[in-house]
Amino acid sequence: MDPLAIIIAFSQLAAAIALLNGVNTAIGQGNVASTAIQAIARQPEVSGSIQSTMFIGLAMAETSGIYGLLISILMLFANPLIPLYLQYAVR
Amino acid sequence: MDFNIKNLWVLDIAGVEVWITETMMNTWIIMLLLTMLAVIVRVKLRTFKQVPTGFQNAIEAIIESFDNFVHNTVGDKFMYLGNWFFMVFTFVLISSLGGLFGLRPPTADWTTAFALALVTFGMIQVMGIIHRKGKYLKSFFEPYVIFFPLNFIGELARPISLSFRLFGNALAGVIFMSLIYGLIPIYLRFALPAALHFYFDLFSGVLQTYIFCVLSLTFISSASSAGAP
Q1: How many structural domains is chain A composed of?
Q2: How far is A85 from chain B (nearest CA, A)?
């Protein structure tokens, strides 16, 4: 089989697997939001500061998801393995 | 299916190729818009009255709400940071909203996002050293000296995670919108993508701008005030 085809196929698989960490990110963000809603329900008068803290927490929880997205984008559109293969194997 | 950064011109300056990309062009368009707005506000500033009406009202509302936001985030001591972050806020916000008009957001290029995050990184270090002097440098060696590599890598990861957050969201929006535009038939392109534009350009853009500014301000104020990590 063509080695280049194998590299491309496994890169697509790797992109799909990297996007799976969205599951964890979603669970974490759901936890953050639900806890913030509970806190607001308990103390509605401080809802402003709870909201801003919640957004920071959401952004922090989102980081891993963004990294996964980035790796999958890298694998799909800017795959570093293909130039490496072309450089060493096709000589 | 066209979401690469296009190259518009290749200038040849003294034998060195200088590429004028779509990102640079869109950045200049946004800079032109913002500069024109700033000049208009500056000219109109002479006619501002004690009791605001119309245009003056809008400008004062924007400035005041941003001042309140900075005050709530970092407090009285670092209010002067608001000047820089108002620029960052308007630039990133307008560049996200530019997606509505078919402009590729400059933040969907990692260089723009990284440049903004690098300034934040520099501000963290400089403000930490100015306000806490030796204690800030000592905080790299806490709790023990062997923790220095971990602290150092954690510090280096800050601009990367900041910039990737902005860049990833903007690029995801660009890719998703171009996929949708490529998928649906041409007579549906007027109605259907509006909802997705609302999410990816308006909601996500405003939220990510807000988060970028809040995180930068929080990092800077926590690095420069004592007792915080």
Answers
A1: 1
A2: 23
Which chain B residues have a beta carbon less than 8 Å from that of A70?
A: 164, 167-168
- Could A67 and B164 be called an inter-chain contact, meaning their C-beta atoms sit closer than 8 Å? yes
Tell me if chain A has a CB within 8 Å of the CB of B204.
Answer: no
User: Cβ of B169 and A70 within 8 Å?
Assistant: no
Question: Residue A42: its pLDDT value, please?
Answer: 94
CA distance A61 to A21: 11
Are the beta carbons of B172 and A69 separated by less than 8 Å? yes
What integer is the mean pLDDT of B94-110? 88
Say if the Cβ atoms of A56 and B172 lie within 8 Å: no
**Domain boundaries, position B76:** 65-224
CATH number at residue A73: 1.20.20.10
> With b meaning 16 or more CB within 10 Å and e meaning fewer, what string describes B67-82?
eebbeebbeeebeebb
Q: Is residue B148 assigned to a domain?
A: yes
Q: How far apart are CA B34 and CA B38, in angstroms?
A: 6
Instruction: Print the domain residue range for A17.
Output: 3-90
Q: pTM of this prediction? A: 0.84
For residue A17, the model assigns a pLDDT of 92
- Enumerate the β-bridge partners of residue B92: none
What percentage of chain B reaches a pLDDT higher than 90? 23
Residue B133 is assigned to a structural domain of this protein: yes
